[in-house]
Amino acid sequence: MKTAFRRIGRVLAACVLAAATTLVGLTVTTGAAHADGCYTWGRGLAQGSTGEDVRQLQIRLAGYPGYNSVLGLDGVFGAATHAAVIRFQQAYGLAADGIAGAQTFSKLYALQDDDCTPINFTYAELNRCNSTWAGGAVAASTAKFNALVSMWKLQAMRHALGDVSIQISSGFRSVACNNAVGGASNSRHMYGDGVDLVGSPSFCRMAQQARYHGFGNILGPGYPGHSTHTHVGAVGGWSASSCGI
Prior knowledge:
By secondary structure, this protein is of the alpha+beta class.
């Protein structure tokens, strides 16, 4: 939960950004902003921008690629990133110009906690296996990063569903944890991006909505072993025949 002081800091940051953002052709320049606890953008971003600040933007917009698409996290602000920015802006009632400037950054600051996770999800929810993220199919740092991207996708999906609470029953698993629960030998859980969703909305509703938020792997009712949850992950295909998927 963010503190009142942090919220005040973000308001100040938004004010500074709003005062300093200008357009020069297709280039957006932004003055220095009050430091955010996670990440602070120091300039506006538009098509043609490149760099780590673009990649950080792409991570947070990973849930806005459009139907059956995945947004690349390559640090290059191309047409796909432009479209994702527009979808994000539309989702939050911002001016939908495809340019990441003061208003867009202000909303992103409000959506992230100091550890860079979105406000409605935590690393602890995504890892009930161990505290190190080790022992999976990829390096611990990669598994943790993959989980972070999945959380941002889920944040977008949660908002699209009306800001309803989404419950997670399983996230990252080491090989040992995966074997203990009888997981598939190629389970995305071992890569850090696999997430099992339970609770409400219905499993079918979650599976159907997930198609718009960058999940290349969606398994739900109608797929063997998935009558009690909906699974989402980075890659692996879609199958939820009871849900029309």
